[in-house]
Every structure is written in structure tokens, then in C-alpha cells.
Amino acid sequence: MQLETLKNQFEFYLKQRGCKITKSRFDIIDVIARYGSHFEIEDLVNWITQENKKIASRSTVYRTVKLLQEFGAIREVIKLNNRTIYEFIAGKPHHEHLVCVECGKIIEFNKEKIEELQEEVCKEYDFVPLNHRLEIFGICSDCRSKKDENRKPAPVSKSDT
Amino acid sequence: MQLETLKNQFEFYLKQRGCKITKSRFDIIDVIARYGSHFEIEDLVNWITQENKKIASRSTVYRTVKLLQEFGAIREVIKLNNRTIYEFIAGKPHHEHLVCVECGKIIEFNKEKIEELQEEVCKEYDFVPLNHRLEIFGICSDCRSKKDENRKPAPVSKSDT
DNA sequence: AAGCTATTGCAAATGAGATTCATTTGTTCT
DNA sequence: AGAACAAATGAATCTCATTTGCAATAGCTT
């Protein structure tokens, strides 16, 4: 199973780094892999608390999230206002995000051509890319239709004033 | 002159919004237009303090920066750790950034094709884009050559041990 | 099991940015 | 010009995400 492989790799990584294999770390990678395509620190705390009936210390979550970023299982994808949204990437091809500023919905997309063009740019500037983030902020179709409804509070077809 | 035009437009914008024409606001747009291709709040505070011999209140700077974003003269371009870097955009064509994680250097680039592809994606998802941000984090050539030097501390050609 | 070291959890610190409110300053009206 | 009102300012305070110091705890090694 995928999740087991991931955990094994993580264990290997931790040992390599001289880090210890602890329950918290595996609890965290576990909920991320099962629940979390996109998540914030707060989500992790909630998920773990729900499952384990034990509050995960926020500091440990922060520390582990950093570790998991270095390991490469997750990455910061969205920075909006003072919120940081991470995503679980294990195995997924790189992709970018549309972020609805009304409802917060996140739509993933993948445009190979954009990636290629980025590589091209980096070569031009003799720049070695480590990672990148493309965020398109805007309004999704759902929110737009909701707005349209609000703009027509008294449609002719309806009965009363 | 460019700067005057900008200030006039800003004045017009403020009046439209029912805002007042104040010295602080013009001090701020002034230093941005003259000094600041890329800047942080802290930079604005410093520049204004240096020029005016009067400390600009941080709150006013924050408030004005928000106003200038709405006006469209500046935008948030980089979010790295807990730092927000803005840039002065008046008139500039939209462009993206390479950010060196070693030295903090920012390289601007413009790839029309990337913009077009983004539009395409938005259409696909029936998403109306308001703005976007593409950050490529990596290591610039300067920093790479510095690193290489450090890796060869005792080149054979040099004389002593 | 002992002993060492990394990890944890808590509480306190930090730091960017927002907010409150009394005072000041633009703007408008006469 | 001056009165009257609304908006802007600065200082202090607050908020909220994230980090850090430290004492207690838990993995690992032998």
C-alpha cells in the first residue's frame, strides 16, 4: 500500500538524518496522507485530536511540518493574508492553483507547457530553480453565480414585491 | 513627468473614493515611485524617515500601502517566510520573479506565453482571475559561483598551504 | 536497564499586521 | 475666513501565526 511505502521512506529519511522515530511524526504523516490534499496547521491539529483523543501540541505539528517539507512529502502552496496552506505532494505531478478569494476554494491544474517555459526562463538567467509557486487569485464560477442572484433580488418572474 | 502624472491619477482616485488628499499619502507614493522597485514596509518607513526627518507611523504606512494596492500602483509579489515584498508596478507590463533564496536577489522576467497559458486555464475552469503571482525560488549564478569557491579552498595553482 | 540525546509540550516570546481611540487635519458650507 | 463635520493620523494595544527556551519524557544504543 502507498501509505506504508511512504512511511517506510520517511522512516529511512529520519534515520539518515539522525532523527528519532516517534509516534507524533507518524501520526502527522498519517493524517496528511489520508485526509489532506490541502491543509493548514489548524487542520492537522484537529484531525489528530479527533483520531487520537489526544491534543497534538502545536509546536510539534509545526516542527514536523517543517521536517516533512524537507523530506519532500508536503509543500507550501498558498500564502494568502496570514494563512499558509500546505499540500500533500507525494507522487503527484507538480501543479498549480486557482484560489477563489470569495469562498477559498482551491482548484488544481497542471499545464506542462508552463513548467517548460519556467525552465526556459531559468536557463536564460542561469538560475537553478528549487521550487516554484503559481497562484492565480480570482472568483470561481459558483461564487459568480451567487453574486448574480444577489444582484437580481426581485426577478420579474417571482410573485411578490 | 511620469511621477507627476501618477500623483495626479492618485489624487483623482482618492477623490473618487471620498478620501482626503494628505501629505503622508503623497510622501509614501513619492518614495515608492523614486526608490522602490521592490520593497517592504520597513523600507518605506526608513526612506520616509530619512527624507522627512520625521518618523512615518507604521500604521499609516500599512494603511496607505493597502490603498495603493487598491489603486493599482503596487502589488504584493513575494511571500517568503513571514516577509511580504511589494513592487511598484505603475505602467510596467506584468511580470514574474526569480527569487534567490541565498542572497534575496530578485530577478524580474516576462514571458508573455505564460500569461496566455494562464488565461487559457482560467477559461477552462470558468474562473475569473483578479491577479496572480508566480515565484520561482532557487539559487542565482552569483551565489553558485561563491559556493564553488568555498568548495575549493586550496586550489593547486596557489602557492602556500 | 542505564545512560545519552533528540523530542515533546507548555508557556512565553516574537513579529507582521490590524485595530482602537483621542487628537489632528482636510474639506465643505456659509 | 471660520465653523462644522468627516476622515486620517499616531501611539498604544491587540491579534494571530509561528518560533523558541526549557524542563520533563521517550527513543535508541550498548
Task: Write the topology of this structure.
Two copies of one chain form a homodimer.
Chain A: H1 2-17, H2 23-35, E1 38-39, H3 41-52, H4 58-71, E2 74-80, E3 83-88, E4 96-100, E5 106-109, H5 112-124, E6 128-139, H6 141-151
Parallel strand pairs in A: 4-6
Antiparallel strand pairs in A: 1-3, 2-3, 4-5
Helix pairs in contact in A: 2-4, 3-4
Chain A binds a DNA duplex (30 and 30 nucleotides) through helix 2 and helix 4.
Walk me through the structure.
The structure is a homodimer of 161-residue chains. Chain A has 161 residues and is α+β, with helices and mostly antiparallel strands. Chain A is 49% helix and 22% strand. Chain A has 6 helices and 6 strands; from the N terminus they run H-H-E-H-H-E-E-E-E-H-E-H. Chain A has helices at residues 2-17, 23-35, 41-52, 58-71, 112-124, 141-151; strands spanning 38-39, 74-80, 83-88, 96-100, 106-109, 128-139. In chain A, the strands form 2 sheets. Chain A has a 3-stranded antiparallel sheet. Chain A has a 3-stranded mixed sheet with strand order 5-4-6. In chain A, strand 4 (96-100) and strand 5 form a beta hairpin. In chain A, helix 3 packs across helix 4 (58-71). Chain A is flat, with a radius of gyration of 21 Å. The first copy, chain A, starts with a helix and ends in a 10-residue tail after the last helix. The model of chain A is unreliable at 155-161 (pLDDT under 50). At the A-B interface, helix 5 and strand 6 of A face helix 5 and strand 6 of B. Strand 6 of chain A pairs antiparallel with strand 6 of chain B.
